[in-house]
């Protein structure tokens, strides 16, 4: 009896919290989760209605604190919407704003320099995660990592940055080539991407190509290459990785 009473009192206290405190607690729960968490799980933990929790999650997504992703169901059914905390978002936004202001006087200059910065960013990520598999394979006379494996590594990196990636099944695109598409359901700097796509989107393209460790104009018969389609829908960009 006491346990049930304590739970009811805890839920009542949660409901009486000012909205900004509720939102901070929602953010803490998302941040402390080991993976993506959905609105119903948070609602259960907080003793709130799931609609109220979704309201706070939408606001946190809008300010860049949280990103949407997909949680696969066991068995048949559409994936659930999950939420993950966006780590280091302030540093990332600050970097992007500086790039937008300082990269050049023309859109072409900014695009070229932003893509180069994205490649250097990818070099740093790969150095932190371990050696580049493609380079190691070439030195050892072994085949480079498969299209599916490399796409998975790229998606993992974009997941950590809050892009909410979803890999689609590989598809044949002719001439013996296959394509893996990564649907990016969230952008940590969406507002900047809309106002300065020549900076934000070019930097993400450079990051994508750098993680792939290939040149855009490399040998199409052997190399993997990548393209980025920004805002194919208001909340969706698509990264395409193509190879044999």
TrEMBL record:
Protein name: Transcriptional regulator
Gene3D superfamilies hit by this protein: Winged helix-like DNA-binding domain superfamily/Winged helix DNA-binding domain
Native source species: Mycolicibacter algericus DSM 45454
Region: Disordered, residue numbers: 1-20, 125-149
Signal peptide annotation: none
Top-rank taxon: Bacteria
